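Let's sit down with a protein and look at its sequence and fold side by side. We need material for that, and I hope you will provide a protein of your own picking. Once you have written the record down, we can walk along the chain together.

***
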Amino acid sequence: MRSEEHLNQASAALRGGRWQDARVAFEASLAQQETAEALEGLAQVHWWLCDARASVQYRERAWVLFRQGGEAVRAGRVAVDLSISYLVNLGNDVAARGWLARAERLTRRLDPNPLQGWLWLMQGYMSGDAERARADTTRALELAQETGDADLELLALSDLGVALVAEGRAEEGLAMLDEALAGTLGGEYGRLDTVVFAMCNMLAACHLVGDLDRATQWCRVAEEFMSSYGCPFLYARCRTHYGGVLVAKGRWEQAEEQLRAALDMSEDAGPGPRVEALAQLADLRLRQGRLEEAEALLALVDDSSDVALPAAAVRLARGEAAIAAGLLERRARFLGDSHIEVAPTLALLVEAHLADGHLDAANYDLVRQLRRASLPRSSALRRPGRPGRCRTVASARHRALCAVV
């Protein structure tokens, strides 16, 4: 069989989610002739088989061949995908920005530029400025609607939705996420990974606001997709978010089940999903009063904003209030004033200052900032069950507000 015939077989298997069949056929095609198409196909296969590093390696080889062949648009698309993989799968934001810049430089002279919307989407996703991120993502959405790019439209809607939820505009953001996921799971997508990112955004938003009902209902809809296509990466990250919602709702036994499954599934999914699962499991242990186990879980993670809150809670429970305050101050600066998760961060920071005996007139601005935060909408503040040996964020909120009454 010729290389082209193997390539056609592999592409058909890829579209059908038959990952092992696609892998064998792509490898057979490459054995006869190395092509950018076969390398890019293998990159997609390995991503769905939860081998992000192999996926990146194949994509980088495909990038070189597309560039050598003078195919700027296809090379640019690969560069955008590499940016996503480095950021989401491998947790390397420096490499992600480098690849995005490469895609932008390669396609900037094209008029029209078919990748412009994707460049705006990624620039918005990686921006540390909420206003600029919203502007870039909105531009991507408008361009997608003009050009009929369904994948770009669905992901821009989804990114805008989760950003609005994070800013405390939960009703508006969740409505956008519902629309994006309805279109995605209804089959509007052209790329299978659109389903992955839209579903993860929905569950991340549900985790932020503690909306178990919405998370459960969308998981039921997504089960059919996952039973057809699998995807350990999707399963791991989504299960982590779903587990976080269950933790916030006090359904600890079910949360344990989901988070354990997420840890097993994230073994080879890159550091991002694994860190998130460990952070959520550590939070569960804190709520259960199992301090030593929480500390052991956090010790498995390098310095990360994802674990700052449980790490600070452990330090506070150990009587190391000043260290806890330092962790929380850094996290608050990282989140900014408008992020929904700044409320539990500030609440625990006030608790740390109280424990350290430093909540005096100089801290009143901090307490007033806490009063202004969207406390009722943050799932992290609804901490059911007994406090155990650790102070809860809810008690921190109560004591902090009393300090300025």
Observations:
- The radius of gyration is 23 Å.
- Residues 278 and 297 are 6 Å apart (CA to CA).
- Confidence is low (pLDDT under 50) at residues 374-405.
- DSSP finds 21 helices and no strands in the chain.
